[in-house]
């Protein structure tokens, strides 16, 4: 995924969770948070393996995504983490250009 977008773009953020053997696996709970350029945090959590729940979508074992509609220029920070049988976290950032 490129690191720079335009205002109004929908950016798909994703994370893949694996067990200690490196096999894709579903954690007990997936948490997703992103921070907009003005510092607003948007939080979502889900448990279970239904296709979509609370803005977090599951595509297959261990693979989850959330879409962010960009509304302002600047950096967007996002983080996926999990609890339960798989406990891990990762963070990324992308930028949105000024008009």
Characterise the protein shown here.
The protein is an all-beta fold. The chain contains no helices and 9 strands. The strands form 2 sheets. The chain has a 5-stranded mixed β-sheet, with no helix packed on it. The chain has a 4-stranded antiparallel β-sheet with strand order 2-7-6-5, with no helix packed on it. A hairpin with a 5-residue loop joins β3 and β4. It is elongated and about 45 Å long. The mean pLDDT is about 95.
Task: Describe the protein's topology.
Blueprint: E1 4-5, E2 10-16, E3 29-35, E4 41-47, E5 52-53, E6 56-60, E7 63-69, E8 74-83, E9 88-96
Parallel strand pairs: 1-9
Antiparallel strand pairs: 2-7, 3-4, 3-8, 5-6, 6-7, 8-9
């Amino acid at each position: 995924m490129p690191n720079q977008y335009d205002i109004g773009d929908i950016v798909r953020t994703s994370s893949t969770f694996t067990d200690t053997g490196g096999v894709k696996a579903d954690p007990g709970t997936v948490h997703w948070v992103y921070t907009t350029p003005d510092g607003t945090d948007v939080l979502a959590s889900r448990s279970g393996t239904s296709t979509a729940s609370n803005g977090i979508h599951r595509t297959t074992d261990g693979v989850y995504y959330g879409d962010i509609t960009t509304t302002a220029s600047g950096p967007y920070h996002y983080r996926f983490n999990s609890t339960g049988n798989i406990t891990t976290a990762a963070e990324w950032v992308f930028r949105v250009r000024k008009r």
